[in-house]
Design brief:
alpha/beta; globular; 20% strand
């Protein structure tokens, strides 16, 4: 046990990453560590990376360098998606003691213990930021390293993956990065709490088999695999005992959750969670649109705790662009699904992701996509430019859109997103909504922020409201990113 040994976390990317970081946090706490936010005092720093865009890679590199600069003596573990697809690149950054790919995060505490053992055997000097380390080269054989007693050297692959390095400390001491085909079992990282949140993000699925032409995630996350149905229920029961009454079901490709056995699929899970007395809200994270048949929606409607917020990834409203993206629907099919959702859930808030500047997206194609989004009247759109990812089909495409044109399209689509959000907000003025409050607007203010069941952000000026409280609010004033309201006694 490492009583009160300080460990810090840096988490980049999606809600799945957030959930996994909480799982690793629980593993450290079970071993006696205490979690701190100050990197400079931590003896261990865990950086959970993202690789969905070039910017994500850049942020991951920046965090690794920052952590090492702030704390030269800490054990630094770099884990997750960026490591999975570019382990050698991460190693060459310098600064990492441990590299763990996806499906390997359960090893984190043991990996830290191994690094401590290596340091005790002679190489105890802290890593000096900017020092030119003798990194393991691709043509070196890690089996030649002198093993630490009890360590398995070269225990899985012949190359630099899945190797525990030896006694003479290299920059990376422990490295476990599985091949995609090896990631066949869902990695359990159970949670009982979710630090700093009033909502709990429960990871129920991992991996993706879609292979959209622009997306690196199927390579980073591996094939589809689902969490055991009972394991999900057990985790939710633990979370609600600790005060988390809103449950957000998350995954990399959520629609794939036990798709092969509907009796344990998403509908069955929502229905089971709906029966848990202490659960008050159930919602989905980002999800693929084609899952939403009329029968599926009708079944969700029967679960009164299900929240009508649907984040349906669109990517483009132009059919020709969707074909090149290898998306598996047309704009007409997407529109029909949104129409069904709004018929069955009249108060539904439909939000989406939109990519602009995909290779071959002409000005006309962008205009088609823009008009389609306008017609959909989304509550919000996350807009981002195409970012080529090495190893994907789209990375080899020609007919690229000029950077300045991509920026202009991002600006135009983002402006539309704001206009549509204002319109959605305006329709709610005068209504009374139940709000789960989460945080202060700023540290030195009486304003409190929270969310309605359909995920509209609400602000109320009332310093007595605490995080985790449900209150009824009458909405009266539209702002840029939220609606202002006042506390009332209900409907």
């Amino acid at each position: 046990m490492h009583r009160n040994e300080p460990v810090a976390f840096i988490t980049l990317g999606c809600r799945v990453n957030s959930s996994e970081s909480e799982g690793m946090r629980a593993l450290f706490e079970a071993d006696g560590y205490s979690v701190v936010s100050d990197l400079s005092v931590a003896s261990v720093i865990v950086i959970n990376t993202c690789t969905v865009t070039k910017m994500s890679d850049s942020k991951s590199r920046q965090m690794i360098r920052r952590a090492r600069k702030q704390n030269p003596s800490a054990i630094i573990a770099v884990v997750g998606c960026y490591v999975q697809v570019a382990a050698k690149e991460v190693e060459n950054i310098g600064g990492a003691d441990i590299l763990l790919g996806n499906n390997e995060k359960h090893r984190i505490v043991a990996a830290v213990a191994h690094v401590r053992a290596v340091r005790r055997q002679g190489d105890t000097r802290p890593y000096a930021y900017g020092e030119d380390k003798n990194l393991l080269k691709n043509d070196e054989n890690p089996k030649n390293a002198s093993p630490v007693e009890g360590a398995k050297v070269g225990n899985i692959d012949e190359d630099t993956k899945n190797v525990v390095y030896g006694e003479k400390r290299k920059e990376v001491t422990v490295c476990h990065v599985p091949q995609r085909q090896e990631m066949t079992v869902f990695e359990e990282l159970p949670l009982e709490k979710f630090a700093g949140q009033t909502r709990a993000f429960v990871r129920i699925q991992d991996g993706c088999n879609q292979f959209c032409s622009y997306c690196i995630i199927p390579y980073a996350r591996g094939p589809v695999r689902s969490r055991d149905f009972q394991s999900v229920l057990d985790e939710v029961k633990s979370l609600v005992k600790n005060g988390y009454t809103e449950i957000v079901l998350t995954g990399i490709h959520l629609a794939s959750y036990h798709a092969e056995k509907p009796q344990e699929g998403l509908v069955a899970l929502v229905q089971a969670l709906n029966k848990l007395e202490m659960v008050q809200r159930i919602r989905f994270g980002s999800i693929e649109p084609m899952l939403f048949t009329e029968d599926f929606l009708a079944a969700l409607r029967e679960s009164e705790k299900f929240c009508p917020h649907f984040h349906l990834s669109l990517q483009s409203g132009c059919e020709a662009t969707l074909v090149r993206m290898n998306r598996h629907y047309t704009p007409a099919e997407y529109a029909a699904i949104v129409k069904k959702i709004r018929q069955i859930f009249p108060d539904a808030n439909v939000t989406t992701d939109v990519m602009v500047g995909f290779p071959g997206e002409t000005a006309e194609a962008f205009e088609v996509s823009y008009r389609f989004c306008q017609e959909m009247k989304f509550g919000w759109m996350h807009v981002f430019p195409f970012s080529p990812r090495k190893g994907t089909v789209a990375a080899k495409m020609t007919d690229l859109v000029a950077p300045e044109e991509k920026s202009q399209r991002v600006n135009e689509m983002t402006h539309l997103a704001k206009v549509m959000r204002q319109s959605a907000f305006a329709q709610e003025v005068g209504t009374v909504q139940e709000v789960l409050f989460e945080q202060k607007l700023t540290q030195k203010t009486a304003w409190r922020l929270g969310y309605t069941r359909n995920f509209l952000q609400i602000a109320v000026k009332d310093a007595s409201i605490k995080a985790g409280e449900y209150r009824f609010v009458r909405l009266h004033n539209v702002c840029d990113a939220w609606i202002e309201g006042i506390i009332c006694n209900g409907q």
